[in-house]
Task: structure prediction
Amino acid sequence: MTTVPAFSELPAYSEFVSHVERAPERVAARWPFAVLAVIGALLVLAPLASGMFPRAVKGEAMIDAFHPYMTQQSIDGYRDDLQVLDKARTNVLALQAASQQPGDFPRVETFVRDYPGIHADMSSMLNTIDANRGNYGKLSGTAPFGSLPWLLALPGVVLIAAGVFGFRAAAAGRRGVFWRSLAALAGLGLIVVPIAGGLFPAAPAAQPLIHGFRPILTMTEVHKLQGYFVTLVAADGELNSRYVAAVQAAHPNADLTGITALEAGWQPMTSRFAALVGAMNDNVGNFDAVVALNDSTRSLGFTAFRGLAWGYLVPGVLILALAVAGPRLSRTGSGRRDSTAGAPE
Result:
C-alpha cells in the first residue's frame, strides 16, 4: 500500500491567489465630442440662416466705397462748395435788388428759389456724415466684413469633423488626442477673431451709424440729390453762357465776384458732387443688406452687430474648455478580475 505524503492534502497556492483584481480602466468620454460636433453645426448654420455670406460682402463693399467721403478733408471740401454756391446766390440777389439783371433767366431763378432747400438738405447730410466718422472708423477698422462668415463656418466644419471622428475614437476606447487638439485650435481661432479683428469696439458703433444713414441712403434721397445736381448744372450753364455777359453789357461796373468764384471752382465742385451722389446710388442696395443682416437676430433679443463679437468668443471659450478638459471627463470602467494561477501580480 502506497503512503501519500501528508503535505499533499494542503491547499494549493493558486487557491489563495486565484482571483487577481486589476486596476479599473479609464474609458474616454464620448459626449464632449458630440457637443463639439453640435457647436460646429451651429457655427456653419448661423451665417447661412442669417444670410451673412452675401450681406457681409455687400457691407464690405459699402465701407470701401464710402471711405473717400468719410474724412474731415472731404466734408470740409463739400462745406466750402456750399459756401461758394451761397455767395453766388447772394450775388444774383444783390444784382436783382440793384436792378442790374437785364431780362429773364429762368434757370438762374430756379436756382435762387430752390437753393435754400438744397443747402439745408446737403448740410444735414454732411452733418450726419461728420457725426458718424468715428463710428465709421471703428467699423472700417475691423477684419474685412466679407471674411467674417467664413471665420465662423470654417471652424464649424473643423469642429464637426473633430466631433465625429473623436466620438468614434472614444467609442473604440481611444482618447482621441488628435481630434481634441484640432478642436482646441478651432476654439482658439474663434477667440482670437473678435479680439484681433476689433469686433468689440465696432459692435456699439454699428447701430448709430445705421440709424444715421438710414434717412440718407434711400433711392428717394438719391433721386432728390440728382434733381439738385440738375438744378445746379442748369443754373451754372445759364450764368456762364448768358447771365454774366448780359449783366456786363448793361452794367460794366456791376459786382460779379460771387458768380465768378462759382465759375472758377465749378469743375472740381461738380466732380465731387457727382462722385458723392454716384457712391450713394451704388450703395443703397448694399446698405439695405447691412440693415437686413443687423436685423436678422432681432427675434433673439439683440441685433447682429451687438452680438457679433460674442458669437465668436463664447463658442470659442466653450470649445477650448471641452477640448482641454475632455480627458479629465473620462469615466472609469468596471474593474476586471483575472483568474490567474501561478505567480502573484
